[in-house]
Structures are given as structure tokens and as C-alpha cells.
Amino acid sequence: MGALPVELENVYARYAGSEDWIVKDVTLKVDRGEMVVIMGPSGCGKSTLINVIGGLIPHIVAGVVKGKVKVEGIDVLKEGYRAIVGKVGIVYQNPEIQVITRSVFEELAMAPENLGLPRDEIIERVNWALEILGLKGYERRDPQTLSGGEKQLVAIASVLTMQPRILMLDEPTSMLDHEGTRMVLNAINNLRENTEMTVIVVEHRVEWAVEVADRIIVMDQGKIVLEGSPAEVFSREEEVKKFGVRPPSVSEVAYELRARGVDIPVPVRLSEAYKVLSGVLPVDRVEER
Length: 289
Ligand SMILES: Nc1ncnc2c1ncn2[C@@H]1O[C@H](COP(=O)(O)OP(=O)(O)O)[C@@H](O)[C@H]1O
Ligand SMILES: [Mg+2]
Hints:
Layout: E1 6-15, E2 23-30, E3 35-39, H1 46-53, H2 56-59, E4 63-71, E5 74-75, H3 76-79, E6 88-91, H4 104-114, H5 119-132, H6 148-160, E7 166-170, H7 178-194, E8 198-202, H8 206-212, E9 215-220, E10 223-228, H9 230-235, H10 237-242, H11 249-259, H12 270-278
Helix pairs in contact: 4-5, 4-6, 5-6, 6-7
The protein binds adenosine-5'-diphosphate and magnesium ion.
Residues 46-47, 170-171 line the site of magnesium ion.
């Protein structure tokens, strides 16, 4: 049992410079091992919410936070940022690779070295992070020579060496090309399958999100406006349209068919779409794969 990884109740947040609340009345409980994908238009408060959960606002970035913010059972507003350091890892858009390290190994060893861990443990943690992100063989590479996707994997790996219980990724692929995006999203899938880590990720690639998310959260103007399993979220066509979320293509096809009077459930994954659509379309000549 134990405490929930994230427990927010009626949370409001704003920066020192902002006039209005940026995060408004957010209540959110995240379970151990859960994978939550946050979506919503630019400026709606996704990063601010991540920064609140990570204890950055108000402790590192000046601002005001109201409500209950508990992370791993720790009252972050009362106990401060230090109380959750190491328990929560955050990865940003722009891979933060230190210019001072000369190898991927050094890069990854830095955080556990700063924790003052013994050499054996550092090596063990670095190897684990390399393994789980498919970076074996990169140990001696110069971080500066890596592709964007590889740099982002190294950035994720260096957060993992802290062995956080919660990993938050804020638009980890938005600076990457197609190949880099694929690498990073695959790596997140691996983490999901092979660890008990709780993962919160801000990511717009909906086709990916519906495959891996336990829950999708849609934010708009600082509030959570839509929330549920991928199937639940995208079955609410009216709200999906109202809040401008791009649905998976297969859900869109179903919306169109439903508008034409075809009574079918809304699929979110390609694999479900075949089943749903083969019931209403003349696909008997299409070989099932
Ligand atoms: N450090 C800051 N100081 C003041 N306002 C900020 C700061 N960071 C973001 N904002 C404002 O907060 C709002 C929400 O931003 P953000 O949480 O970054 O949105 P998102 O991540 O959904 O794009 C925006 O209007 C943005 O201009
Ligand atoms: Mg953001």
C-alpha cells in the first residue's frame, strides 16, 4: 500500500509575475505504476502543473501554490523541494546534457556521484539506466556527438540514475525529428513494461498515447477538463471537439460514420478499429492479418 505517488486536491498555482491563476482547481490522484498522459493547447498550464508536482513552484520558481500537494506522501508545500528530490525526476523538451562530461558514462554517473553513493552502486545504477533505455554500447560516446533523440535518451537515463519513483516528462519529443521521437517513445514504452515507475508525460502524439496511457488528462485554461482511459476520453466526441484535442485517426473515422447514422462504438487503437469497422463495412474481401 503506502502513499499515493501524486495526490493533488483543489490546487491553484501562479507565478510571481502572473495576474491570474495558471493552474485552477486541479484535483488529481495518480496510482503507483500508473502512466498518465497530459494533453492540451499551448499555454494551458501543463508545464506549470508538472512544476507544481515537482515542487519547483513555489520553492525554486517564485509563485504561489494553494491547495494540497502531496507527492509520495510528502506535503510538498510544507516540507519543500528538498523533501522530494530524488523521488521525482523531470525530463524537459530540450535534452539537458552537461557540456563538461566527455562520455555518456560520465554523464550518467554524475547524479549518483553527487548523491555520494559508493562506486559499485554508481556503476550498477548507470548500467541499469543504460540497459533499460537501450543505450548499451554508448558508454564511451561523447554526449555532444549524439543525435537529438540519443541526447534525450541520455537525459532520461541520467534522471533514472537517481532511481526516482515518479518520472515526469514534459514534451520530451517536441524538439526531435521523427527518428528521435520514435526512439524516445519506445524508451518510455520499455520503462512502462519493465518498471513499477509512475510516469506522467506531456505528449501530443495521440496515436502513441492511446497505446500506452492508463489515463489521458486534457487541460484547458488551467483546468482538467477531460479525463479517463483513452477509450473513455475519445468516446466523448463533443468534449473532444470542444477542447480541440486531436483524436486518433480511427476515432475520427468513427465520428464521421456515427454522424452518418452508423451505430458503432468509437475505437481508439488501430487493432480495435479493424474489428469495429469490419462489422459495418464490406471488408470480407480484405484478408485479416
Ligand atoms: N515563469 C513564468 N512566469 C510567468 N508566467 C509564466 C511562466 N511560465 C509560464 N508562464 C505562463 O503560464 C501560462 C501557462 O504556461 P505553461 O504551464 O508553460 O503552459 P503549457 O505547458 O501548457 O504550454 C502561460 O500563459 C505562460 O505564459
Ligand atoms: Mg509546456
